[in-house]
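Hey,

Quick one before I head out. I ran the complex with coenzyme A overnight. Inputs first:
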Amino acid sequence: MKRLLTRPFQALKRWIDFKSRGVKVWPGAYVYPTAVIGHHVSVGRNAEIGNYVRIGNGVRIGHGAFIPEGVTIENGVFLGPGAIMTNDNLPPSPKSEWRKTLIRKHAAIGAGCVIKPGVTIGRGATIGCGSVVTRNVPDYETWAGNPACKLLSKQEQVEEAPRIAEDIVRDTRSFMEQLNEISRLEPPFIRDSQSPEFRDGFEKA
Ligand SMILES: CC(C)(COP(=O)(O)OP(=O)(O)OC[C@H]1O[C@@H](n2cnc3c(N)ncnc32)[C@H](O)[C@@H]1OP(=O)(O)O)[C@@H](O)C(=O)NCCC(=O)NCCS
C-alpha cells in the first residue's frame, strides 16, 4: 500500500531529475528504477532499460531497444531501433551466471542487432544492421552479419586477397591428397555393397 502511494511521487521526482539533465524518455519506454542514466540521453519509444543498467552521457537509444540488467553503455553510443542486448547465455539460468555486456564510447549499433551476453563492443566500433554479435569487437572496426565478422574495406580486401587465395590452394591440395589416399586403398565397403547379401538386404528393406 505504501509503495502504491509513494510511486506517483517517485515517478514525478524521476521526471524532474530527467528533465533537469536533458534526458528524454519517449512515451512507451520504460526505465527501471535502479538504472543509472547520464546527461542528454534520448530513450526511444518502447525501449526498455533494465535494473542496474548504466548509461553514459549523450547516448541515443532507438525505438524498441532492449537493454537488460548487466549492460553498461559508455558516453556517446548510438543504439539503432530494435537493438537487443542480452545477459543470460543459457536461459533460464540463475542471476549469478548472467554475463556483463559493455558497449564502449562512441560505438554505433545498427538497427535490429543482437549482442550476445558477455560481449564487449570496442570504442568507436560500428555494427551493421541485423547482425548477431557473438565475439568481442575491437576498437574502431566495422562488423556485420550473423555471426558478425569484420567487414573489410576495399583496400583491405585487395591486401587480403593473396592470403585468401593461398588458403584456398592449400585446402584444395590437402583435399586432393586425401582423395588419392582413399583411391589407393581397397575399399571394403564398396566391394561389400556390390555383394548379393547387401543387395538382397537393401531390396527387402
Ligand atoms: C555496416 C555498414 C555501416 C556498412 O556500410 P558501408 O561501409 O556503406 O558498406 P557497404 O554498404 O558498401 O557494404 C560493404 C559490404 O558489406 C556488406 N554489408 C553491409 N552491411 C551489412 C550488414 N548489415 N550485414 C551483412 N553484410 C553487410 C555488403 O553486402 C557489402 O558486401 P559486398 O562487398 O560483398 O557486396 C552499413 O551497412 C550498416 O549496416 N549501417 C547501419 C544502418 C543502421 O542500422 N542504422 C540505424 C539508424 S536508422
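Residues 154-184 form the longest helix (31 residues).

Talk tomorrow,
K.
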